[in-house]
Design goal:
Elements (H helix, E strand, L loop, with lengths): L1 H36 L13 E2 L1 E7 L14 E7 L5 E10 L2 E13 L2 E5 L3 E9 L3 E9 L5 E9 L6 H13 L7 E3 L10
Antiparallel strand pairs: 1-3, 2-9, 2-10, 3-4, 4-5, 5-6, 6-7, 7-8, 8-9
Length: 195
């Protein structure tokens, strides 16, 4: 009888250990799923993207916004990110009646890769692609009259613009349902000062 009890005790302990192992595995799985669902803290030093940038292409659902004298026919000169990426300071030129006019604005971060600023009304800015030589952004502008316009801009740094990045820009234009005929090659018409 003693040996029978020992087997029973041993068997019971074995079941309890297996059940505990299963509970631990289940708890680990649940914690893993919960942790994976959390937004990771961005460790990108955005200040590395600060510097001289040029507008290469622009596209808009309302072509007037990027036409001559349009507020978004902007000839970018510098983008300055703070290290946390909380703000972007834009310095650029627009042409008003044929004259280059230097402007600047600051956009404040509202979410991951999303910013807002007061320029030509309220403008939301979404960074779609960010690399050392290319930034592709989507601007959602609501002007003073309440007209909403989608604008996709392609900013480049230096001479190293890759065909792959141009394709990313064109894909973003298609996603925003902006017609190809509303794409403007900005760099070819940029005759404003370099600073």
């Amino acid at each position: 009888m003693l040996s029978n009890n020992q087997r029973t005790l041993s068997f019971s302990r074995g079941r309890t250990t297996s059940a505990n192992k299963m509970k631990i595995l289940l708890l680990t799985l649940v914690l893993g799923v919960v942790c994976a669902d959390q937004d990771p803290q961005s460790e990108t030093d955005y200040s590395q993207f600060s510097g001289e940038w040029n507008t290469i292409y622009g596209a808009a659902s309302n072509i007037e916004k990027i036409s001559e004298n349009g507020p978004f026919r902007a000839f970018m000169r510098t983008l300055d990110f703070n290290s946390a990426g909380d703000t972007i300071h834009f310095t650029f030129f627009v042409k008003v009646n044929g004259q280059c006019r230097k402007l600047s604005t600051v956009a404040t971060k509202t979410a991951e890769n999303a910013y807002i600023c007061d320029y030509a009304g309220k403008t939301e800015i979404h960074i779609l692609h960010l690399s050392q030589n290319t930034i592709i952004t989507h601007f959602l502008n609501e002007d003073e009259e309440g007209l909403v316009t989608d604008i996709v801009a392609f900013f480049g740094k230096g001479e190293d613009i890759q065909q792959e990045d141009i394709e990313k820009f064109k894909e973003a234009v298609r996603e925003k349902e902006i017609p190809d005929e509303n794409i403007v090659n900005i760099i070819n018409i940029d005759d404003c000062p370099s600073e």
